[in-house]
Amino acid sequence: MQQNKVRIIGGTWRSRVLRFSDQPDLRPTPDRMRETLFNWLQQSVRGKRCLDAYAGTGALGFEALSRGAEHVTMIESNRVLVQHLHANAGLLETRATSIYQGNFAQIVPKLQGQPFDLVLLDPPFSQGLVSVSVDILQAKNLLAQEALIYVETELKDPDWPDWLKPLKYTKVGAVHGFLLAAK
Fold this sequence. Notes:
Blueprint: E1 3-7, E2 17-21, H1 31-41, E3 49-52, H2 59-66, E4 71-76, H3 79-91, E5 97-101, H4 104-107, E6 116-121, H5 129-139, E7 143-153, E8 164-172, E9 175-182
Parallel strand pairs: 3-4, 3-6, 4-5, 6-7
Antiparallel strand pairs: 1-2, 7-9, 8-9
């Protein structure tokens, strides 16, 4: 299986390379989109608890840690990608991660009582997981007061629930990125 890599673009681990193998439906967040997201967030990542809900390569979660996040919880269903997440956390010598293998909806009950300040939501496309995931986050009280949610989706104009306020929007290729605030 081919080895791929993604580069951390800012913070303490700037230019460090994360390695992972090809997997079906894996879409690492492009550098340009990550740069836009973290420019939007600026210093609001520092000291925050983050959830990388569909971690994949871990690019978003490790980028958040590199930029000062206190802790990142990563959820990934693919066993091979989870092995790469552990290997990359070891490479970066960080203990500020919790990595769970499994389906988002199955793992979430284990996280109750740990509200997140920033949620990174980049689920597989065309499965309706954005709206389901957002509903689960609210129903399970996983959002801290004034939490931010970043969503990557194939949808240009998703129907956000009333409790979410869209703040920012970007598009890279066919991927639409939204920064939302919990009201």
